[in-house]
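Sequence, please.
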């Protein structure tokens, strides 16, 4: 009988912030199971999310938070209000910011610095000290700025080393972010499906209070604290209704399949607020792999213990 090779799954289309050479691409390429898919660069984070929502891409990959600048609001707002996408995983990338320009350019030649607004904001001290008189311009991405700097005399760009390599730029200064150890958090999103429980997970929610009165937020937070659920992030965003109305975006440690998480969210929705679920997914960083291994071992040990108890039932 003839043997047939197992058919390979078709590559997925994964949209990300382009052009080639962005920090987003570098973070995406850090994931071994994603690099062989079809990577589709797009102009803005909103374009990435809309393409994923409309089915033009199977998955989207976007930045959601930076250690220096905080939340990437356009990403969070689009997920909260404009799309129905679920976070499948998070990826944390160490950010090394460089000043780059066309070959032969000296620091004294630089008249304009361009980059993504988040990148520009991360280098304020460097600009103030080294380039106090330059014009700072926004760009759609760090790679778009690098591409422009390659053909524009006197223009430099902030961005990753990968962008300088892609567009043939010289590195004028390295590791110039205001705060050392800068990191950016990215998320992989898709139109459906909740990532399976890994043993060390996060759940992201959007909570909109039904009634704004003294103590209403405290009552919501009490539902989490009463169940010993740790909130790793709590931020507010305008609710897009009337002035002064806000919703709250929460990251909690745990998975929707955990009974305690499910019970908490049921109570919050029944008693306090509308809840939009943005996904449960494996947490990144802070020894996540080790924590997942320990959690797996603990669950195996606990299951064996319970099976032993139940085995005594006559």
């Amino acid at each position: 009988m003839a043997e047939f090779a197992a058919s390979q799954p078709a590559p997925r289309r994964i949209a990300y912030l382009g052009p080639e050479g962005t920090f987003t691409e570098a973070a995406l390429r850090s994931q071994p199971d994603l690099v062989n898919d079809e990577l589709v660069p797009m102009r803005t984070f909103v374009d990435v999310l809309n393409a994923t929502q409309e089915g033009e891409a199977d998955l989207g990959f976007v930045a959601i938070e930076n250690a220096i600048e905080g939340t990437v609001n356009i990403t969070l707002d689009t997920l909260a209000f404009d799309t129905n996408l679920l976070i499948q995983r998070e990826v944390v990338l160490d950010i090394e910011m460089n000043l780059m320009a066309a070959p032969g350019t000296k620091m004294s030649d630089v008249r304009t610095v361009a980059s993504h607004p988040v990148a520009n904001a991360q280098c304020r001290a460097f600009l103030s000290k080294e380039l106090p008189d330059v014009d700072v311009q926004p760009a759609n991405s760090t790679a778009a700025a690098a591409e422009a700097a390659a053909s524009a005399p006197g223009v430099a760009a902030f961005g990753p080393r990968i962008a300088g390599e892609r567009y043939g730029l010289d590195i004028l200064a390295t590791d110039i972010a205001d705060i050392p150890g800068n990191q950016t958090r990215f998320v992989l999103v898709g139109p459906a499906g909740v990532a399976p429980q890994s043993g060390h997970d996060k759940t992201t929610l959007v909570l909109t209070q039904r009634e704004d009165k003294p103590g209403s937020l405290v009552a919501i937070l009490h539902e989490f604290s009463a169940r010993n659920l740790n909130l790793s992030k709590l931020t507010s965003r305008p609710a897009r209704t009337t002035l002064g109305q806000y919703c709250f975006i929460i990251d909690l440690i745990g998975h929707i399949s955990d009974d305690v998480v499910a019970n908490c969210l049921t109570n919050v929705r029944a008693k306090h607020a509308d809840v939009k679920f943005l996904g449960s997914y494996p947490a990144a960083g802070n020894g996540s792999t080790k924590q997942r291994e320990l959690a797996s071992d603990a669950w195996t040990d606990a299951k064996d213990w319970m099976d032993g108890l139940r085995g005594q039932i006559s």
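The domain at 10-94+183-193 is CATH 3.40.190.10 (D-Maltodextrin-Binding Protein; domain 2).
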